[in-house]
Amino acid sequence: MRFTFFAALALLGTAFAAPTAPTTSTATIPAGQTCKKDGSMGVCQSGYCLQDEKASSGVCK
């Protein structure tokens, strides 16, 4: 009985600690608009943000 309780508790703890899937509500940026390669401004529709090393932002390609 105790084992079943602890097993269920461990299973629930693992489920709550698991990372969630990325949400689909993240903003998509059209080509030619500014972006950041870390994705903090949103994700380019093409998935490619051209940003120079020292630049604060880049351009979606």
Automatic annotation (TrEMBL):
Domain of life, source organism: Eukaryota
* InterPro entries membership: Gurmarin/antifun_pep, Gurmarin/antimicrobial_peptd
Show which residues constitute the signal peptide: 1-17
Q: Which UniProt keywords apply?
A: Antimicrobial, Disulfide bond, Knottin, Signal
Query: Which is an annotated Pfam family here?
Result: Antifungal_pept
> What is the name listed in the Swiss-Prot or TrEMBL entry for this protein?
Uncharacterized protein
Q: Which organism is it from?
A: Neosartorya fischeri (strain ATCC 1020 / DSM 3700 / CBS 544.65 / FGSC A1164 / JCM 1740 / NRRL 181 / WB 181) (Aspergillus fischerianus)
Q: What is the lineage of its organism?
A: Eukaryota, Fungi, Dikarya, Ascomycota, Pezizomycotina
